[in-house]
Amino acid sequence: MLAGYTLLLALAGALLGDYVVAIYRNVRRAQRTGLPYVVAPLPWSVPMMILLETAWLPYIINRWLPLWLADTTNDPMNNFRWRIKNRQVKRYGGVYLVVTSKAVTCCVADAAVVSQIVNARNEFPKPVWQYSPFPCLPCEDKEWAHHRRHTATTFNERNNELVWKESIRQATEMLHYWRQTASPRPDTLALNDISEDIVQFSLNVISGAGFGVQIPFKPSLTHNNSPHDADIFQDTASPPPGFDFTFRSVVAYTDVKIRTVVFANLMLPRWLRRPLAPLLRRAFAAHRDLENYMQRLIETGSASFAGAQGTKEAASNLIHGMLASRADAADKAKGLSDREIISNMHIFTLAGHGTTETSLKYAFVLLALSPRVQEWLHEGILDAVRNEPADPAQWDYAAVFRKLVTPLCVMLETMRLYPPVVTVPKWTGASPSRIHYRGRDVVLDPGVSINLNMNGLHYSEEYWGADADTFDPARWDAHNSSSFLAQYANTPGLVAPGLEYPTVHRPVRGAYIPFSDGFRACLGKKFAQVEFVAALAVVFRAYRVRLADESDAGRRQAERALQESVSVVTLGMVEGVPLVFERV
């Protein structure tokens, strides 16, 4: 027995010794830069990611530890990094290092340094090794340029018009569904949790405008027994023959269970898959069904694209756009292969609907907490559609979207405070890299991870004023001369991704990065903006939203739900907030 204890103590001592040596080495690396640094006790790793999804470890970190130690512990952890806001930046400055036993990470919340990094793609590449379990995501250099060349043209005004129409259709059907199910009174719609409906809305939009598959908001109760390609995408009570999921249900399942699906199908050794099949059956089936649906989409898309060439419908959805890019290539082999198109479709699905879904969920709760903002939003919508048809389905995209300034400002402000993705990762690659910070050049060693610190930037009083932590969409309105951002009104070079409109104010370049910036800026930013703006215009033209519980306790519960958000794939609230929509 004594020998066993001795062995355990020796093993623990060896592990502790390795930990201390690793910390010491990384501290020395940090000290060579001359930047402020902080030592975090726990490194980011797959086991740590799993532990952070339990209830007890986050509770200990966030409830028992002093705030400074909780912030330091959370800083390397993607799940809880957003909760720090800009507190670490106040402690250590706009550029500081986080040291763990595994890595040195440079956290950047200085707008000028952000601009340097995003515009130096070769010096600060994407850390593709972080995405190795996701074969559709990691690429750099020539491979990245190949994908970018053939996907960038798919996001165009023809597609935006399709997004506009599909978003209006889905938002209108969603309201109709709420009137049927949420309350016996159509002028008062009580909803315990809007999360599933918002997910359904955004998935339906990406299905229609992205993949050419129009799905009604209210699912059909019929059963799908058709083997024909044209029918297998119907949203029915049962999947088509040969599938375990309907098209919409497999996209929804994969979105929620992405880690399980990736682990089961791409990380688990083949020899373990059979014995674990009973536990992971749905994960295996989801991966198989999604692949088969995507392949069928390419086949049906190829047929419909061939028939639509020369018409207004040609290349209007994203699949048609990628097929058109392949058809236009001088050398057909240089276009996107079916496998590459499927990979990009996976990215469009995850990123495309995730951005709008996350932003809409937060916007509805924030607006319920802000009656004055809601009144400003409502008046702006009425002013924009004053001379337009009463039926939103007849609103012309080119004429109406540009006038809907208040919904766009709500989206910009929601994404400032609650960005769907809380960090933009970079690294220094295999060579040392330089940044210029506070009047001097700083050399970062090879292999240093870089976190473009979105919460540090977006909550900075330096870039947003004294009310940086306040939800105030009017700060973005170009007609608001009292906004802190108005001081930059005539400053050149501030047109960052998502801020291309003359109707909005722009902050210092590099201070606002929910769509990233530079060479790798989000291709689908306007897709998301058109979808969000159309949805808010349809809903808040006719309804206002309030908390179901308007007491002080109800308000505190809603604010707590916002502040205790965590990031899995995207930022999200852990608990729902009951809302009531009342007809204006």
TrEMBL record:
Keyword match Metal-binding: yes
Domain of life: Eukaryota
Pfam families: p450
Similarity comment text for this entry: Belongs to the cytochrome P450 family.
Binding site for heme: 522
UniProt cofactor(s): heme
InterPro entries: Cyt_P450, Cyt_P450_E_grp-I, Cyt_P450_sf, Cytochrome_P450_monoxygenase
Gene3D superfamilies associated with the record: Cytochrome P450
Gene Ontology molecular function: heme binding; iron ion binding; monooxygenase activity; oxidoreductase activity, acting on paired donors, with incorporation or reduction of molecular oxygen
Membrane-traversing stretches: none
Origin organism lineage: Eukaryota, Fungi, Dikarya, Ascomycota, Pezizomycotina
Protein name: Cytochrome P450 monooxygenase
Keywords: Heme, Iron, Metal-binding, Monooxygenase, Oxidoreductase
